[in-house]
Write a structure and sequence with these properties.
About 0% of the residues lie in helices and about 40% in strands. With about 240 residues, it is mainly beta. It has one domain: Exo-inulinase, domain 1 (Jelly Rolls), CATH 2.60.120.560. Strands 1, 3, 4, 6, 10, 11, 13, 14, 15 and 17 form a ten-stranded antiparallel β-sheet that branches. A seven-stranded antiparallel β-sheet has the order 2-5-16-7-8-9-12, with no helix packed on it.
């Protein structure tokens, strides 16, 4: 396997492209467990006040409605940057582990290929977590692996979730998450500009390397807002 290229210099960097236009969900398509592709169940994904929101005001209770909002284009070598904050209370009967929990799914399967009752796309999840007010460590920008695995600490690591080295961010504060993706080689997570996690060789559970895939945002019972979702294309190593 070849080594990853160094990041391009600032003079060579491509522009940041907004994937979220601040007005509506153009370019994005929802998929909820138990529902056909394109159904935005209970208006969960919405745009209000220039923010992309995962909102649960139309829910009586959670109802096992795992949802994902897929961007229309697949990518391979890129940086994705989001600014997010958790808000409000978890919907009734949401799972305990999903409290202030979301994720940016990368290298995912296509939305069209998901089964009707599938919980998560096969993907690498860059897990977003909010902190409690009890001074308990709860880092963000972790990695989880629905149907996948990664190469971490010089070996294939099959743990479902691995924590990053980020700080904990309690309350409703805005946090900037950036993920640098070099195809099937190195992936780097940064939080507020600080590198917090690096791993290699994202792959399916059968060992097939993931060179590219979809990007999606989760809905799994925790209200959250995004004020920016943008992408910068990178030049692959030669």
């Amino acid at each position: 396997m070849s080594s990853v290229a160094e990041p391009v210099s600032s003079s060579e960097q491509a522009p940041w492209i907004p994937l979220f236009n601040g007005k509506d969900l153009t370019g994005w398509i929802p998929k909820f467990k138990g529902h056909e592709l394109g159904q935005n169940v209970k208006d969960t994904f919405r745009v209000e006040d220039g923010l992309l929101k995962v909102n649960y005001e139309n829910y009586q209770e959670w109802g096992d409605l795992f949802g994902h909002l897929f961007y229309k284009t697949e990518f391979s070598h890129y940086r994705i940057r989001v600014e997010y904050r958790f808000v409000g209370e978890q919907v009734a009967k949401g799972p305990g582990w999903a409290w202030r929990n979301n994720g940016i799914m990368i290298h995912g399967q296509s939305a069209e290929s998901m089964e009707l009752d599938q919980d998560f796309p096969v993907s690498i999840e860059v897990q977003i977590l909010g902190g409690t007010d009890k001074k308990k460590a709860r880092p963000t920008a972790n990695v989880c692996t629905p149907g996948t695995q990664i190469f971490f600490d010089e070996k294939v690591d099959k743990r479902h979730c691995i924590s990053s080295e980020s700080k904990t961010f309690p309350g409703d504060q805005w946090v900037t998450l950036e993920v640098e993706v070099h195809g099937s080689e190195t992936i780097i997570h940064r939080v507020n500009g600080e590198k917090v996690f690096t791993y290699k060789y994202p792959q399916k559970n059968d060992g097939t390397l993931l060179e590219s895939g979809t990007i999606s945002i989760q809905a799994e019972s925790a209200p959250i807002e995004f004020r920016k979702v943008e992408l910068q294309k990178l030049t692959p190593a030669q």
